Amino acid sequence: MARIAAFIRSVIQSLVRWITRAALLFIVISILWVVAYRFFPPPLTFMMARDAFSGQHVEKAWVPMPIMARSLPRAVIGAEDANFCSHHGFDLDAIRKAAEANLEGRKLRGGSTISQQTAKNVFLWPQRSWLRKGLESWFTGLIELFWGKPRIMEVYLNVVEMGPGIYGMAAASDHYFGARVDRISNAQAARLAAILPQPIKRSVNKPSKSTRRYARRIEKRVRVVAREGIDDCLWN
């Protein structure tokens, strides 16, 4: 019995050492990964790779946020995350409201912030699971710590899926409007933001009545975001 107990202790100790080393390695690699993307554009995301390997033509172009029309970040703030500048990666009030709506059986909704969506888009895969949500929370905390709000928004605007094989607002502006991303109007920015977070189901060129109504609401929010300084964290 003593030998069996000693063997079990040895196995447990080895397992603990292995798990500890693996965890430390993951922490170091993920931090270095995040820090690298603080200075360099992400060359590829999981969804870009998925489309490329499936034979889908991928359109993408990296454009620094200061070159983009300000209507674009204001539109996605108005549409996706009104508290972007005030939260630290997680909008607890939005999460609570989403949970309440889902429990009451109303239309399923999410409480993800732009920071969470950026972490998922850049570092992870799209399918929902508890593992992915846990990793999403980890990477969200890291980009909030190492990137800051302007960089988070810049990366989001450059990697967000905007249609089949279309990634980033620059590619979307050219594809849908034939326009440079620095010349997008409030109305055009609102039309782009209106297809999020379902860019495959919703259409920019042939929007449904509900999507058109949503775009008009977002266009109004763009003016509110500008007037009330809701996007000040991006420029100060």
Word description of this protein:
The protein is mostly helical and 236 residues long. It is built from ten helices and three strands; from the N terminus they run H-H-E-H-H-H-H-H-E-E-H-H-H. It has helices at residues 2-39, 46-53, 71-80, 92-103, 114-123, 130-146, 149-159, 169-177, 186-193, 209-228; strands at 59-60, 161-163, 166-167. Strands 1-3-2 form a three-stranded mixed beta sheet, covered by helices on one side. Helix 5 (114-123) crosses helix 6. The longest helix is centred in the N-terminal third of the chain and has 38 residues, at 2-39. It is elongated and about 75 Å long.
Q: How many E-type strands?
A: 3
Tally of contiguous helical segments: 10
Percentage of residues assigned to helices: 55-70%
Spatial gap, N to C terminus: 68 Å
User: What would you report as the Rg, rounded to the nearest angstrom?
Assistant: 21 Å
H and E order: HHEHHHHHEEHHH
User: Percent of residues in beta strands?
Assistant: under 5%
Shape descriptor reads elongated
Strand order of the largest sheet: 1-3-2
The description of the largest β-sheet is: 3 strands, mixed
Unreliable spans are none
Mean pLDDT: 91
